[in-house]
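Can't paste images in this forum, so I'm doing it all in text. The chain is below; anyone willing to post the predicted structure tokens underneath?
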Amino acid sequence: MKPARILLFLSILITLPACSPAGPVTLTVMTHDSFSASEPVILDFERANNVKIIFLKSGDAGMALNKAILTKDAPLADVFYGVDNTFLSRALEAGIYEPYASPLLAEIPAQFQLDPGDRALPVDYGDICINYDRAYFSAHALSLPVTLEDLAKPEYKGLLVVENPATSSPGLAFLLATVAHFGDAHYLDYWRSLRANNVQVVDGWETAYYTNFSASSGQGPQPMVVSYDTSPVAEVVYADPPVTDAPTASLLGPGTCFRQIEFVGILKGTGNPDLAKKFVDFMLGQKFQEDIPMQMFMYPVNSNAHLPEEYSLYAGQASQPASLDPAVIAANRERWITDWTEVVLH
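Text version of the structure:
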């Protein structure tokens, strides 16, 4: 090629616009504050789909749902994770979700699929139970309570701390367990007996667990607390110095725990419906499901997901947890809380 032609060719190359691959699309996922996932797991999804995930943490489950409802005409996110069965009916009635029958639902037992319209799809579950300080009961040669009724006996006076159901989701779950067990007509009588037995009430789980509970703080006054059936696993995982056994365990008698199921859904108005569907599939898939237990200390709903060894060693599951229909909860939740407040706090 002659020099003149080479120069002309180079000049054309220089003036051509530079071509670069398109940057990643952004997908926003609204969650409650307790959401957690391993960075490598999220990164795998981002790389496979040329997407950047932004997690919008929005308070506890109730606060996040309020935000999603208030902004449903101009949604802040594409996907919303964190509504549980205590708020499910409210979310569905507000019409914030697009239906999506993920093919991964075939791998999830029907007992977790509470929305027949496939707007809210189950992601994880766990039981709210009474956790107890094993060392305290051993040192005091005190037998463990087996039923909810036992907690009102004199030998357990002042030994239980619970969370306010108006300000705490574990507190609400325990209130619902008592409604399920005693019935609408008699649950307040039970709470009167707990109050007479000096039950302690605090606003939230962190105060109950880290200040009042004797096994966690080492100096709290109550050896029993409303927490999660997976809390003993977390006690081992985060122990410093390391321990070889959990200092806590859960009371798992029939009807003493309340099963919590958490859901994900695609928000109406998303500009990325196809990508949102892929992310929902990802959350229900085996890789994400197997990340849940050690990140959020909940159980995966996907039947193919394997649990870490710590769960078989330290966690126990209730064989007969309490439950209530989400529609019944939605119709009565505020009344139950108001009546509970009047009986227990006034």
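Residues 126-258+317-344 form a domain with the D-Maltodextrin-Binding Protein; domain 2 fold (CATH 3.40.190.10). The radius of gyration is 25 Å.
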